[in-house]
Amino acid sequence: MSSAISAAAEAAPVLAGMPLRERAGYLVKAADALLNAADELVPLAMEETGLTEPRLRGEIKRTAVQLKLFAEVAAAGEFLSVRLDAADPDFVLGPRPDLRRMLVPLGPVLNFAASNFPFAFSVAGGDTASALAAGCPVVVKAHPGHPRLSDRTAAIVSAVLPAGALSVIHGQDEGVAALKDPRIAAASFTGSLAGGQALAAIAAARPQPIPFYGELGSLNPVVVTPAALEARAGSIAEGFAASVSGSAGQLCTKPGLLFVPGALELSASFPPHKLLHPGIVEGYAQRRAAILGTPGVTVVVEGTAGDDGVTPTLVETDLATLVKHRDTLLQEAFGPLSIVVRYTPGEPLGETLLELVEGSLTAGVHVADGEDSPWLHDLVTTLQTLAGRVLFNGWPTGVAVTPAMQHGGPFPATTNPTMTSVGTAAIERFLRPVVYQDAPASLLPEPLRDDNPWNVPQQHSPAGSSLTWGSEIVA
């Protein structure tokens, strides 16, 4: 563990000072290396995780796309947020010095890999891609569910990166020790609420606390309006079952609650699917038993749960039961189980959701064509308060790897409501601002120089501009 962090600490100034297009080139090389090794890595991932070949081949492609997306971000340089304020003796508040601001990398990042995405949220996944694009070396604490895959992926990808840019450690004790190491400047995590909270507390209790970006748990509520139910109940039921069942429900965006204003005919005929590892099997069996044993909960699709595989379980209840048994029912069930909740049309559902449902990664609403009402506006406002992504007439499983994506939300979805772990804004987690004041030109970093050798976007505030601030705005 210590050698991995030492190597990362030595690599940090190298990555930070590297020209942006060169840094971007390494990310492209990493993506190509991953794709070229797919025929070796996918069977290994299948053996260790139980996930299917089509799912894993799609995921390895997504992982490569993430790396290439962040290569584009790194090369463009906009993420540096360069701002240049010229020295101004006539500044309205008194003489202004020459100020030049940019974002710089934090330093070595510790990434706690996820179990359910052995490529996309693991060794070479989105956290690693965004940290490397920011100029931060990465130490990955591998997930115990796929250790051999983690080591092999790291060997393949690190071979095309600068020395020390990417390494892997194993074991809970090693991960905690790394989190406490003063050379680690930030940490990212995807996993359970309990595990994430424990690690966040360690990061905050350090002599020098560091940012901890954790994705912890999410119920992802979806509401169906009366008009939408009348218009397309069958397709809604079908889409819901497929979303709950995808990857055996082992997705952080699985819809855990579906609110409907009437009857919904549900079925879920899917073959058994193995869960990722014994810990998830045990946790899912316990949550399923607790939910099925709750008074007022009716089993619609019973499903199965066992070491050899699971099939979807769908249950139904009403809003009053959900309120009464919130302590049991409003906990994430990581696996193919979801709760359908009946509500009365016209009641203030938004108020109830705010009272019951904690922060989620996503929230959704199914509406009819042209539907609009004050009730619906209030509901959408509530969903925005609850979640980082609000979907209309769709299902939350499936997260587009694209610049505008937000994959984060209020606690407990994430430890920081402003973070995202997907989309180009993810790079902002691993940067901090620095201002150079009245610096000699020869000592300025390249992005802050007047000749702009890296050709990055620069925002200028020229001398004299403060005299006209607000003059073109009508109050």
TrEMBL record:
Ranges for domain Aldehyde dehydrogenase: 3-261
Region described as Disordered: 446-475
UniProt feature, compositional bias: Polar residues: 455-469
Organismal lineage: Bacteria, Bacillati, Actinomycetota, Actinomycetes, Micromonosporales
Keyword Ligase on entry: no
SUPFAM superfamilies documented for this protein: ALDH-like
InterPro entries cross-referenced by the UniProt entry: Ald_DH/histidinol_DH (IPR016161), Ald_DH_C (IPR016163), Ald_DH_N (IPR016162), Aldehyde_DH_dom (IPR015590), Aldehyde_DH_Superfamily (IPR050740), ALDH_KGSADH (IPR044151)
UniProt KW keywords: Oxidoreductase
Official protein name in the record: Aldehyde dehydrogenase (NADP(+))
